[in-house]
Write a structure and sequence with these properties.
By secondary structure, the protein is an alpha/beta fold. The chain has 8 helices and 11 strands. The strands form 2 sheets. It has a 6-stranded mixed β-sheet with strand order 1-3-2-4-11-5, with helices on both faces. Strand 7, helix 4 and strand 8 form a beta-alpha-beta unit. The protein is globular and about 55 Å long.
Length: 289
Amino acid sequence: MNPTRRNLCAGGAALLHTPWLLAQAPAEPLITIGLAPFLTTAAMLSAFRPLREHLARQLQHKVELYTAKDFVDLLNQTRAGAHDLSYLPSHLAGLAINEWGFHAIAGTLSRTPVLLLVRSQGDLRSPADLRGRKIGSLGQLSLSAAVGSLWLQQNQLRPGRDVQLVPQTSINSAMISLERGDVDAVFAARSQIDLLPADNSRGHGTMAEVGSIEAPIFVAQPRLAADRVARLREAMLSFVPDPTRPGAAGNTQLYRIDAAILKRLALLREIALEQLREAGLSGSSASPR
């Protein structure tokens, strides 16, 4: 097992500290799903529990959830074949589908806005007020960070010169940093904010909607047989959200990826390739070393 993979456990709170203890479901063979690391492990587990339990029942297989230390690590895991399914930001999904032959399985939300969040009682009201400030965002290969950086440049604010972008390990930690004053604002997708626990999303407001992006996509490994891909897709598409839980990416009606969405994903992969180049990587060097 790749030691960089972080398992999302499905037991009590104590189990969350045991990285190799896995979510239990009916029987073998195993289905593994890699999830984009934009929340803490506990929050990600809670968000995707309804879907995991549905797949275990529908397919009568054991289903395990994993995440990664960052998006580069997740991309490495995905390309290395560490998971049957991966839940990827749409630009990384476009890269996987168009460059590496992955299968599009299901979409979560049709689109989601990228927001610039500030403290409700703060003094930031316009882009000009951000000059000299710190903005938190997810790290390398984050689509919300890429959209946020473009918005800053469109408003004559150059990252690294006029504003400082501060990488955050999760949206949870970004919101805590905002509350504490460690950063002055945060770039985050609405779909990410909607998955936060209630006590992690108070005391802020939206200064601007900086863009709109395709929400994350589930993709399947090219190595999977066509009939297994079809079964996984149909099981995903038959998921019915839990009405007692908030409607968000982990608890929403999934939809089939059509030709129009595939075309948009193909264009979005260019953002991923540009981010990889800026990080000193490439489409090929993003594979495991």
